[in-house]
Amino acid sequence: MIKSTSYRPLSLEDAIQIARSINVFAADANLQCEEIGDGNLNLVFRVYESGSEQATSDQSPQRIIVKQALPYAKVVGESWPLTLDRARIESEALLFQASLVPQLVPKVFKIDNELALTVMEDLSDHVIMRKGLIEGKQYPLFAEHIAEFMARTLFFSSDLGMNQQEKKRRVEQFTNPELCKITEDLIFDDPYTDSPNNNCDAAIRDELTKLWDDKVLHLEVALLREKFLTQTQALLHGDLHTGSIFITETSTKVIDPEFAYYGPMGFDIGAVIANLLLNAAGQQYWCGDEQTRQDYRRYLLNTVRDIWNRFEAKFRVLWDEHLVDRLAATDGYQDMYIDRLLQDVIGYAGCKMIRRIVGLAHVADIDSIPDPQVKERAQRIALTIGKKLVKINRRVHSIDEVIATCEYGFKGVHV
Ligand code: SR1
Ligand code: MG
CA dihedral in degrees (21, 27, 28, 34; nearest 10)? Predict the structure, then answer.
């Protein structure tokens, strides 16, 4: 863990000086800087050469990003202190991911653990996927790209794909207690109790109290929480929602792995799926007419199916070709592993849908719906599907059962 002694939050001028210290800009370049961070936790500076604002990316980028961790959670304020060590974790996770899927993460130019910052490739020729989905865009290569990202990073950081003693050292390297605590509270505790962290619209207050009383749901959440707390299965991204993905029709870049830690693989895959389903719920508003809505929801559900199927196929190939564990080659073990993994995926997807409706941090797909009645409808759809996914998780054996459950949920059928 890095204890920083010379840390200070950067000014725009500081960010320009840092940008000059790497070999990207000409020595006499006229550099501009703006702070563009709109996330929950960090400062994000874009530094660019005057006149390069409209340029597209090329081999020698004329724009870079300086991302700096703040010593508190920006979304709440200085009353919520937060470790700067998350910047080290994020940069080391980015380097690990780059060693396996360099085409799917931003290039890193510089790391400074004292200042808790990472200097990286600017991706402003991409859009944040959440924004693209709200606008009804389709991304034909996304399922393939994200399945590749997850299959390779999860397999090769697990006991299946790497030296098992080295893996234990990696677990230590990526121990991330404060960021995990945020997840443990916001996802696996607050929604199920009368917590001051909850943020629930008055219109669906009845849903919140139902969540507090639902003991069948609590049991499943407790089991999923237990795995999150105890299972060092693989190095996770840890916050793999559609706001952590930059995208175009042909390119996908996964950013922001500051929540990275060794945990259950299903947590990452579930996060991606939950955020597609949350968007599908939000399409109650964003799609103007019923036919467009049905078509777009069909696209999103097909993407969910595709992600799982591609992930499974890739993971099985990696297992067959790169397994390091002799006993894991036992007949039947791979099938059981994949079966249990799908169950985790569905459980975590459900938990992540619920927390984005009643917990502290919401998603724009639903929260920015301006019509209160349509927003309420979208929230109730998301909660219905989220709760159902949590409740069925240990009985699921195929992604098609899950898609059918979601289809019923979007039709308003009590699932
Ligand atoms: C206090 S941080 C709130 C949320 O933002 C991050 O993106 C994580 O999802 C976290 O739970
Ligand atoms: Mg983030």
Answer: -30
Would you say 34 and 57 are in contact if contact means Cβ atoms under 8 Å apart?
no
Do residues 228 and 121 lie in contact, with contact meaning Cβ atoms separated by under 8 Å?
Answer: no
**Ligand 1 pocket check: which of 38, 40, 195 to mutate, most ligand atoms within 8 Å of Cβ?**
40
Predicted confidence (pLDDT) per residue in 192-249, tens digit: 999 999 999 999 999 999 999 999 999 999 999 999 999 999 999 999 999 999 999 9
Kindly state whether residues 184 and 216 are assigned to the same domain. yes
Q: Is the CB of 186 inside a 6 Å radius of any atom of ligand 1?
A: yes
Cα 83 to middle of ligand 1, angstroms: 14
Same domain, 33 and 60: yes
Ligand 1 atom with the smallest distance to the CA of 182 is: 11
Residue having the nearest C-alpha atom to atom 5 of ligand 1: 40
Question: Are 66 and 133 found together in one domain?
Answer: no
Residue, of 123 and 56, whose pLDDT is higher: 123
Atom of ligand 1 nearest to the CA of 41: 2
CB 174 within 8 A of CB 235: yes
Same-domain pairing of 104 and 211: no
Number of domains in the chain: 2
Domain containing 33 equals 12-121
Instruction: Tell me the CA–centroid distance for residue 266 and ligand 1, in Å.
Output: 18
Residue 228, domain member (yes or no): yes
36 lines ligand 1 (CB under 6 A): no
Residue 230, domain member (yes or no): yes
Residues 236 and 245: their CA atoms lie apart, in Å, by: 15
Tell me the pLDDT tens digit for each residue of 122-150: 999 999 999 999 999 999 999 999 999 99
Q: Tell me if 82 CB under 6 Å of ligand 1.
A: no
What is the sign of the dihedral through the CA atoms of 265, 187, 361 and 288?
positive
